[in-house]
């Protein structure tokens, strides 16, 4: 199992220099990938591209770019540009987001999400692969042809939890990017269903990227309480609630990797055994010493 860093916690106080430094440090520590969410007023692909010249090998992924507010042609242009600027290290993670943000923040109508995603991929994948598309969908459409800045398109991955989205991810993309999913859910829900879909479509075994909070500490209860408070919403959103119910837990704090070095290492081993191909850590401790201990455990697991 490959291990990377999810630096989305830095978006609370966004600073491009800080993000770039964190990506550089993650590459120096030997991590395979670095991921940023598309939230607020920081553009994840642009932030990752800024770090491109300062790094050489670490993969740079979005986890994830919501599809509703951005036409697939616009995203294809941005992703291809980022791919060219980083010498082929971009992983384009996309997702539907959730009804509260679609209707509450963007004032759009949440409807036909599966059709929405199928149409989105119908435009996006053709433009990434060939620079042209002639697709007439029910939600998204595009006709046109352009020169691309690179003929090496980025991998596309899909945030997928439910059966229908996992089938789309397996049949159409390079894998799935997960948040707040534990080992039982990986083993019972995510891995078998996406692998079956990929196999039926004659595609390679997809990547399954699991992301969770990680915090090495000698005082786990306050850490768990803080994460429970911070991530309360994820225990309420229907798609995540369904996954937490499979896991048999109350909320995200119950599946976060919190505790001693040995306890966190055991948690990583359980995720690997469940079939995840990649793990990306959201390091949540504000304490520098605990952060370094956490990085050390993750690096050791990745060695």
Task: Provide a descriptive summary of the structure in words.
This protein is an alpha/beta fold. It has a single domain (2-100, 152-302), classed as Luciferase-like domain (TIM Barrel, Alpha-Beta Barrel), CATH 3.20.20.30. It has helices at residues 16-28, 44-50, 72-85, 99-104, 113-130, 163-172, 183-200, 220-230, 238-247, 261-273, 288-302; strands at 2-6, 33-36, 59-62, 65-66, 90-95, 132-136, 141-145, 155-158, 175-177, 207-216, 257-259, 278-283. Strands 1, 2, 3, 4, 5, 8, 9, 10, 11 and 12 form a 10-stranded parallel beta sheet that branches. The protein has a two-stranded antiparallel ribbon with strand order 6-7. α2 runs parallel beside α3 (72-85) and α6 (163-172) crosses α7. The chain is globular.
Give a topology summary:
Elements: E1 2-6, H1 16-28, E2 33-36, H2 44-50, E3 59-62, E4 65-66, H3 72-85, E5 90-95, H4 99-104, H5 113-130, E6 132-136, E7 141-145, E8 155-158, H6 163-172, E9 175-177, H7 183-200, E10 207-216, H8 220-230, H9 238-247, E11 257-259, H10 261-273, E12 278-283, H11 288-302
Parallel strand pairs: 1-2, 1-12, 2-3, 3-5, 4-5, 5-8, 9-10, 10-11, 10-12
Antiparallel strand pairs: 6-7
Helix pairs in contact: 2-3, 3-5, 6-7, 7-9, 10-11
């Amino acid at each position: 199992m490959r291990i990377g860093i999810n630096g989305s916690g830095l978006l609370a106080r966004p600073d491009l220099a800080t993000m770039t430094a964190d990506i550089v440090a993650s590459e120096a520590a030997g991590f395979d990938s670095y991921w940023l969410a598309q939230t607020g007023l920081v553009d994840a692909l642009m932030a990752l591209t800024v770090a491109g010249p300062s790094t050489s090998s670490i993969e740079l992924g979005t986890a994830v770019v919501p599809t509703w507010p951005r036409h697939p042609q616009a995203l294809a242009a941005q992703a291809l540009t980022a791919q060219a600027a980083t010498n082929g290290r971009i992983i384009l993670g996309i997702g539907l987001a959730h009804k509260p943000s679609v209707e509450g923040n963007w004032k759009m109508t949440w409807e036909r999400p599966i059709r929405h995603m199928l149409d989105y991929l119908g435009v996006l994948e053709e433009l990434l692969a060939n620079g042209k598309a002639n697709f007439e969908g029910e939600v998204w459409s595009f006709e046109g042809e352009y020169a691309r800045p690179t003929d090496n398109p980025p991998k596309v991955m899909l945030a997928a939890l439910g059966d229908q989205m996992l089938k789309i991810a397996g049949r159409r993309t390079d894998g799935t990017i997960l948040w707040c999913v534990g080992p039982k859910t990986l083993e019972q829900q995510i891995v078998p269903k996406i692998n079956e879909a990929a196999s039926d479509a004659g595609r390679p075994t997809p990547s399954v990227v699991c992301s969770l909070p990680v915090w090495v500490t000698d005082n786990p209860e306050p850490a768990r309480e803080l994460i429970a408070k911070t991530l309360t919403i994820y225990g309420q959103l229907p798609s995540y609630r369904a996954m937490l119910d499979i896991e048999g837990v109350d909320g995200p704090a119950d599946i976060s990797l919190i505790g001693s070095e040995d306890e966190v290492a055991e948690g990583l081993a359980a995720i690997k055994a469940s079939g995840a191909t990649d793990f990306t850590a959201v390091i949540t401790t504000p304490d520098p010493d605990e952060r370094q201990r956490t990085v050390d455990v993750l690096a050791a697991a990745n060695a």
